[in-house]
Amino acid sequence: MLIGTSAVVTGASSGIGAAVAQALAAEGAGVALLARRRDRLTSLADTINARAGGRARPYEADVADADAVRAAIDAAAADGDGIDIMINNAGGGTWGPAVTADLAGWHDMVEVNLTGVLNATHAALPHLTHAAAHHDRGVADLVTISSIAGRKVPSPHSNVYSATKHAVGAFTEALRQELAEHHVRAGLVEPGLVVTELTTSGRDYVPDATNPTGYGLLQPDDIAAAVVFMVTRPRHVALNEMLVRPTEQT
Ligand code: NDP
């Protein structure tokens, strides 16, 4: 259903981003894989390209570096005949009491989760509006992976992480209204607890879900399926927001 389209996925070197890239590729999209760890991106590109019709390329960039991310996105557009689908997924964070927090850690979170989304979106917008106007599909997609933390009332230790995710939600809604006339759909996907390096590496992560009793948490493929559903709607349908929780998450 996405044959002939080109997508960019930030944070494609692991977790949700890697799953989204594979799912878009399975639908026929060419995928530009953007993150800092080139070895991971190259390995994923090889996996995708080994499949029939697979088209993937790695682009090494830090989303917090505006020039680097613009260069990568422009290169992806040149290599892939434009950009029809932009997925802002790169992100991360730490949780903990504000009174003992490391200020530099807060700034890092803002740099990736918010400034990174702004950098990548600013670079992608001209390509998306061009694709919507000139490609046969007649529509383009800007999807940002926010979080349940951007949707519900923040919990105490989610302080800056929640702030960044609420911010990208507000940014996306403003863009949604502005871009409607350009036929660029701005959508937000808000995962609950997903099993990825973010939630299993032990880097100060404190899950806000009650521990499930057997149904299990979300897997990256569950979020990838939501993203694919969002971007494969007919061009007159804009699915603006998807909140995806594990069944047992409160
Ligand atoms: P992972 O840690 O598995 O993946 C994070 C990805 O972001 C990696 O590919 C990493 O690549 C990339 N990344 C981080 N910093 C940068 C940077 N400065 N520049 C470029 N890429 C960067 O975590 P998830 O897959 O869980 O997270 C993906 C998104 O999903 C995030 O936005 C997260 O906030 C959101 N999310 C996750 C939830 C969960 O429960 N897991 C729940 C709700 C939302 P590299 O290090 O190679 O640069």
Automatic annotation (TrEMBL):
Which UniProt keyword terms apply here? Oxidoreductase
- GO MF term list: oxidoreductase activity, acting on the CH-OH group of donors, NAD or NADP as acceptor
Q: Which organism is it from?
A: Streptomyces shenzhenensis
Recorded family membership: Belongs to the short-chain dehydrogenases/reductases (SDR) family.
Give a yes or no for keyword Mitochondrion in this entry: no
Q: What is this protein called?
A: Oxidoreductase
Please give the InterPro entries that the UniProt record associates with this protein.
NAD(P)-bd_dom_sf, Sc_DH/Rdtase_CS, SDR_fam
